[in-house]
Amino acid sequence: MNSIIEFHELFDIPSATPQQRKVHGKANYPSRSLSLARASWQALLERHAPPEPLDGPLRLVVELLYHQKMKDEGVRYKTTRPDGVNILKLVEDVMTECGYWHDDRQLSVEEITRYVWCGEEMVRIKIFRLEDKDEGNH
Questions:
Q1: Cis peptide before 82 (omega within 30 of 0)
Q2: Is 100:49 a contact under the CB 8 Å cutoff?
Q3: For residues 14 and 136, which has the higher predicted lDDT (pLDDT)?
Q4: Phi and psi torsions of 123, nearest 5°
Q5: What's the confidence (pLDDT) of residue 26?
Q6: Please, which pLDDT band fits residue 136 given cuts at 50, 70 and 90?
Q7: Ramachandran region of residue 24, left (φ > 0), alpha (ψ -120 to 50) or beta?
Q8: Where in the chain does DSSP place strands (E)?
Q9: How many helices (H) and strands (E) in the chain?
Q10: Looking at residue 64, what is its pLDDT?
Q11: Which residues pair with 75 in a beta bridge?
Q12: d(CA 133, CA 113)
C-alpha cells in the first residue's frame, strides 16, 4: 500500500491539546497555549495540503519524535504527557481545516506513535487510500 501523501519535517511539537480549554462562567474557549499549538500545526500542515480534498476512506499515520537527552542514541517510546489521542484529534481537526479531506469521518484507520530520541524534534505524517475488503475475506 503506497502513501498518497507523505512528509516529515523538523518541528517543535506543541504540548497543548484540545482538552486544554478555559472556562469562564458558561463559556468555554481555547487557552492561549491551545491557540498557539493550533497555529503551529496549521503552519506546518498547510505546506503539505493536497490541491483538492482526498476522497474515500483513508488511513492516517502520525509519528512524533521528541528530543530528549539520553546516554545512548536509541529511540524509545514516549509514555508521558501529552497523550497521543488528544494530539491526534488536534492534528485531524487542523488537517480537515487545511483541506486534506472533506471530513475527518473519512479516517477509517488512525495511528499515532510517540517516540523520544536524542535527535531534533520531528513529525512524520503519511496518508493512505484504503480499499474495501472483499466480503468473503474477513
A1: yes
A2: yes
A3: 14
A4: -125, 140
A5: 60
A6: low
A7: beta
A8: 3-10, 21-24, 27-30, 58-67, 75-77, 107-117, 122-129
A9: 2, 7
A10: 97
A11: 117
A12: 25
Cell numbers standing for residue 22: 478555559
Asked if residues 13 and 123 have their Cβ atoms less than 8 Å apart, the reply is yes
User: What's the CA gap between 23 and 104, in Å, rounded?
Assistant: 26
Q: pLDDT value at position 28?
A: 66
| Alpha helices by DSSP H, 13-58 | 32-46
Question: Rounded distance, CA 43 to CA 57, Å?
Answer: 25
* Amino acid sitting at position 30: P
DSSP code of residue 105:
G
- Residue whose grid cell is 497543548: 16
The closest of 7, 108, 93 to 55, measured between CA atoms, is 108
Q: How many CA atoms lie within 13 A of 11 on its CB side?
A: 22
Query: Which amino acid does the sequence have at 58?
Result: L
Per-residue cell: 7: 512528509
Q: State the amino acid at position 104 in one-letter form.
A: D
In terms of pTM, does the model score above 0.70?
yes
Q: In this structure, what C-alpha cell is assigned to residue 53?
A: 480534498
Is 115:67 a contact under the CB 8 Å cutoff? no
